[in-house]
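Input record, target 12 of the design panel.
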């Protein structure tokens, strides 16, 4: 069951790092004509790179990732399946072995093999690839959202305008995984609401130490994450004030963990999942 954040009004603290309004609240305040993600052109906004929902940032991150792979001597093409990721991992096995414990490496390799056989990957609900052949960091691209959701509509518009049809996540695994949860954040396009916090961190109980279980499998975690951001009415940000950063995301995540440890979590009505 999905859980959402709840505090008493008197003791509720504001996250000083959160520059992005809650998506549902922002949508309610905006006039109807402003709620749909616009297809922008040069005449409508000369600063297209800052008002394109993060499309330029997405392309910039792709170019940076390609440059990093070339410097590392990796294949020029990004592996878009777990099976391909396993092959490139074996090529860099010595580097991985030096930074991991045996149990962690075996568990992550099993996760990749299971994902390669999973319906979610075969049907391209999402894809998984390694970041610079690093078994501890995954790029996860989310493709198939509920067609009735606002986020689905936003992505359709973004695809027509800029050729981008997915939400790009970065998943980082700690050295004591699976006993501690992975750290997940949105890279691009920029998303607000849907329990996406400042910096792209994601507000989900199962991604915190108190809510995590070593029995969880990554396919279920990713599918649950997709469901969470849809139920939270996530939207793609029209005007990008500043990029998401890992430092900012980790600050938001630390704040989230401390706040929920103090106030607890609230189960939403059954109709909300």
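The sequence produced for target 12 reads:
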């Amino acid at each position: 069951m999905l859980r959402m954040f709840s505090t008493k009004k008197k003791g509720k603290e504001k996250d000083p790092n959160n520059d992005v309004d809650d998506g549902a609240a922002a949508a309610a305040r905006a006039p109807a004509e402003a709620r749909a993600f616009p297809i922008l052109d040069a005449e409508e906004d000369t600063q297209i790179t800052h008002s394109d929902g993060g499309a330029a940032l997405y392309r910039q991150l792709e170019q940076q990732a390609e440059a990093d792979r070339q410097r590392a001597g990796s294949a020029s093409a990004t592996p878009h399946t777990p099976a391909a990721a396993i092959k490139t991992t074996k090529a860099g096995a010595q580097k991985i072995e030096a930074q991991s414990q045996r149990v962690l490496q075996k568990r992550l390799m099993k996760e990749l093999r299971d994902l390669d056989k999973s319906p979610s990957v075969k049907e391209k609900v999402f894809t998984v690839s390694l970041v610079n052949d690093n078994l501890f960091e995954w790029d996860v691209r989310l493709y198939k959202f509920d067609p009735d959701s606002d986020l689905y509509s936003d992505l359709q518009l973004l695809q027509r305008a800029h050729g981008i049809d997915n939400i790009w996540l970065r998943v980082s695994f700690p050295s004591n995984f699976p006993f501690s949860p992975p750290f997940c954040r949105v890279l691009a396009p920029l998303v607000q609401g849907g329990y996406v916090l400042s910096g792209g961190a994601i507000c989900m109980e199962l991604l915190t130490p108190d809510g995590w279980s070593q029995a969880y499998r990554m396919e279920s975690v990713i599918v649950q994450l997709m469901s969470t951001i849809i139920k939270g009415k996530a939207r793609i940000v029209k005007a990008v004030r500043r990029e998401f950063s890992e430092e900012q995301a980790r600050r938001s995540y630390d704040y989230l963990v401390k706040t929920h440890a103090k106030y607890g979590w609230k189960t939403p009505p059954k109709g909300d999942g």
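The chain is about 40% helix and 15% strand.
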